[in-house]
Amino acid sequence: MLPDSRFTNLPKSFWANVRTVSQELGYTDRTTNQIKIPSLQDIKTAMNSLRLNTAHLSDINETPTEIGTKLTEYFKYRAHILNNFVQRRLTDVTRAKEIFEGLKAQFDPACPIPMNKQKGDKKAPAYLTGVVNMLIEANCQGMPCNYAPGRLTTFTRDGAPLRTLARRVDGCFPDTFNPIAIWEVKEYYYTTTFGSRVADGIYETLLDGLELEELREREGIDVYHLLVVDSHYTWWVCGRSYLCRIVDMLHMGYVDEVLFGDEVLERLPIIVKDWVQKAGMTPDSPTLPELSGP
User: Residues 160-189: pLDDT tens digits?
Assistant: First the structure.
């Protein structure tokens, strides 16, 4: 999923309003289990309850201001995209395994496929990570790719370190030094609650995004930042508020694209083709997986 251009390049004060209202009113309508869509009056009520000014939302005649209108439009958009697109793309472990095994049979990959961190009957390949790695390998035109960086990502200038990110990411193209793209994979097929470990995954991506924003603004170096997440139960049943925060983060510019569940099948080959082109090659058409299913 790419950001909607109507809500990109907005001032950080806009997102302060989004976060403040979302926190005060909540993210989910508990009666429908859908993402909440606050009206302008709801937004003003939230501000009043926090003893915050509402003059920036509407004038004395109750006519919405530009920011008041933009806020209501954004909340409608966020609810629509999550209720009607994201929810339907998230999979469970059965579907993830089906996709993984189909791609493995199709591509006979040489890329690394890590195991998950579960024990006993739940120990298995990390399905989403494996799918991501296989699709990248199948579409990177033989270019090198670091599927499991064991070091921090570093950007250099004139052979000297310019910036080094604070944490290791899940993958870099083509490598950890001066990558064109980095990505994070958050798959939580076996969790039974939305715990702090899952929430931390989002904050880690936000940290990466903040560092990449500073690198772009100060040094003119633009790096493609991708987030891939899956598990319908974890993200939709337990963590809808964090899905809202992911959509917010996408539109704030801290991540370039987010792929939800089986969306990787259609989007990742196209994304990798763009990476290869940026690396100075002219690839053939991206290799799309030959899979069918819900």
Answer: 999 999 999 999 999 999 999 999 999 999
CA distances 186 to 27, 142, 203, Å, are 21, 26, 12
Contact 113, 126 (CB under 8 A): yes
Residue 88 and residue 72: Cα distance in Å, rounded?
24
Q: What is the pLDDT of residues 182-208, one digit of tens each?
A: 999 999 998 877 778 788 888 999 999
For residue 138, the cross-strand partners are none
Cβ-proximal residues to 33 (8 Å cutoff; 6+ apart), any chain: none
The candidate with the shortest Cα–Cα distance to 245, out of 202, 210, 207, 209, is: 202
Q: Which residue has the tokens 């633009």?
A: 222
CA 150, 137, 173 angle in degrees (round to 5)?
A: 45
